[in-house]
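The authors assume throughout that readers already know how a fold can be written as discrete tokens. For illustration, here is how one protein appears when written out as sequence plus structure tokens.
>
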Amino acid sequence: MSDDRTLRVALAGGGAFGAKHAAALRRIEGVEVAAVVSGSLESARKFAAEHGVGRGVATLEEVLAMDDVDAVVLATPTPLHAAQTLACLEAGKHVQTEIPLAASLADAEACLAAQRRTGLVAMAGHTRRFNPSHQWIRRRVRAGEYRIQQMDVQTYFFRRTNLNALGQPRSWTDHLLWHHAAHTVDLFAHQTGSPIVQANAVQGPVHPELGIAMDMSIQLRAANGAICTLSLSFNNDGPLGTTFRYIGDTGTYVARYDDLVTGEGEPIDVSGVDVSTDGIELQDREFVAAIREAREPNASLTQVLPCYRTLAALEEQLLLQSRI
């Protein structure tokens, strides 16, 4: 499409991440958030009024029938991601799907096949690729100034009841492996520039009501010898979120979302890394730019599929362990 035409984007998901995408898209020149779909028509209209979105509508199908909507950002519950990605592509809409793309390898592969068949832009919301903190590290690696020896990652939340990031009841259950581990599995291969050749996992007891493991430990090794140790928990009573410790040959760095410090805790200025210090905005800017330039985006379905292959292999390990 031409650079001077307004790109009309619809947003599916009126929750915490939907709000982040709405704010980010508003900051991108030549983009209009034309419609939003939420859990109900009432909540969609309320979200539209609060976030400056064109209008709230009842269903994704209604959005996909709009001739003047060019693209869709999916910030919906994980179990809906794959089917909604396929629906967007089949309707001729470019699509960005929040992480994870799918909760199974078969569904992820189906999405990739649809993207290749349609030729549309389709990317997954692997935000860590875009956070300025991680971009700063990647640039040093690519310049030959830094070699990652190990990534030590802690992903910790307190979710013993089924609540979302806003503390509201969830209609679906989050997952340490297929959602939260996906960030690190993809980032490790992306940052080292080397494919994962070995992956091991163990998990703690399954929660009697939620039906998921609340604690998990994952080990990864890249072809170039770098290793990653990932600890995940829904039992941790603060602080919440993910901390990445990069241990390399010329320094140690600790990244937490868009912020970066040295191993000694000294802040590193990442304000000049990109046009924004907001990883979600940079992710959305890449989506928009790929559509305008008719090119493959960073975090395309082709690029992230190896992550889902690793997750599927880890899931198989955990299933085998549960039978012992």
The first helix runs from residue 16 to 26. Residues 129-275+309-322 form a domain with the Dihydrodipicolinate Reductase; domain 2 fold (CATH 3.30.360.10).
